């Protein structure tokens, strides 16, 4: 028997409806413009990568691999994964295309969907969109600050300038190894009182207990030793220079030793932007330095730093502030009356569009009153009425809707001039 259940989008994945696209387009265009202002160039990687790209870099015990990554075998027997994040894919492209031979650092940005099998909730989806940047080939604190400043500029230009920047240093691998052992000894007497997820992390990745949402208020978490007290001198100097540069730029921030990363390749500077007074679950975007990632992919030691920001999180925060995108303008709505009028409006629309004017075609067979209602609903600036008589004479009845003005009979050329706003004394019919 046929399945009569109405199909729905997969759980944790959602449609972006026409009424939503204006805001999404605004975010995308702003992100790409800010990226270009900082000298970053767009990179597009496949939605599907060899699973080893992520298995090598994010660690077998990370949440991404252990619980979230979509992995499958294709018909050729290759083990593939839907990309869960953009950094490893960007670094794979950097290596594959020999970008190490280009002037360093290589500055890249990307915008697209990622996939994680996560528990769906507000701002967290199984198909999630991200904008991210990667600055590969520069080990200096200045590179960290450049990327932070780019991210801050993006939020400011989107109207989210009140987000709080929290920064930390997690040192190098050697620093973390010693700190992890210290943490393990600290949490060992309290392990039985931690959440089940934190108990698992105690065995696999004890550092991640510090950013547990369930145990954020646990006394053992609050009393945990700070990694900042255990940095190597070079790590501490790097972090001091990052803070000094941020201070010089007047960028406000808070030092938060509990910011960590579950991904193995991060080192030294890490940061997050979140709404004021919100918890880590509301993080809008996060970044950090990943000096060991290229090596994990089989390349030479190559420093890198970058960030990713969730587009859905940005949308939620903008809507909380009452923001809405602006729909693309409709310059002209065509109102065909009669069979010849319909053909003439098709030709008129072609001419107008060739001149860069947005046109919405009215459906044939409607009355004039219905056409006016449709034109007003579309917020069109003009309505162009073409009946069989106008079609025979090669003219248009053009009436402004967005401003005061009389309906006038004009030729196609004059209609283009009027809609573009080039006529200073009204509309003059073509000779």
In terms of topology, how is this protein built?
Blueprint: H1 18-37, E1 41-42, E2 48-50, H2 52-58, H3 63-68, E3 71-73, E4 79-82, H4 87-96, E5 106-115, E6 127-136, H5 141-158, E7 164-169, H6 173-187, H7 196-204, H8 219-222, H9 233-249, E8 254-255, E9 267-274, E10 285-289, H10 293-296, E11 304-310, H11 311-320, E12 332-337, H12 339-354, E13 359-361, H13 368-377, E14 382-387, H14 388-393, E15 396-400, E16 408-410, H15 412-420
Parallel strand pairs: 1-5, 7-8, 12-13, 12-14
Antiparallel strand pairs: 2-4, 3-4, 5-6, 6-11, 7-9, 9-10, 10-11, 14-15, 15-16
What does it look like?
The chain is α+β, with helices and mostly antiparallel strands and 431 residues long. It has 2 domains: 244 residues, Bira Bifunctional Protein, Domain 2 (BirA Bifunctional Protein, domain 2, 2-Layer Sandwich), CATH 3.30.930.10; 89 residues, Rossmann fold (3-Layer(aba) Sandwich). It is elongated.
Q: What fraction, in percent, of the residue positions are helical?
A: 25-40%
Radius of gyration: 28 Å
> What's the main sheet like?
8 strands, mixed
Q: Indicate the CATH class of the largest domain.
A: Alpha Beta
CATH architecture of the largest domain: 2-Layer Sandwich
Strand content: 15-25%
- Low-confidence parts, pLDDT < 50 over ≥5 residues? 422-431
Let me know the number of strands.
Answer: 16
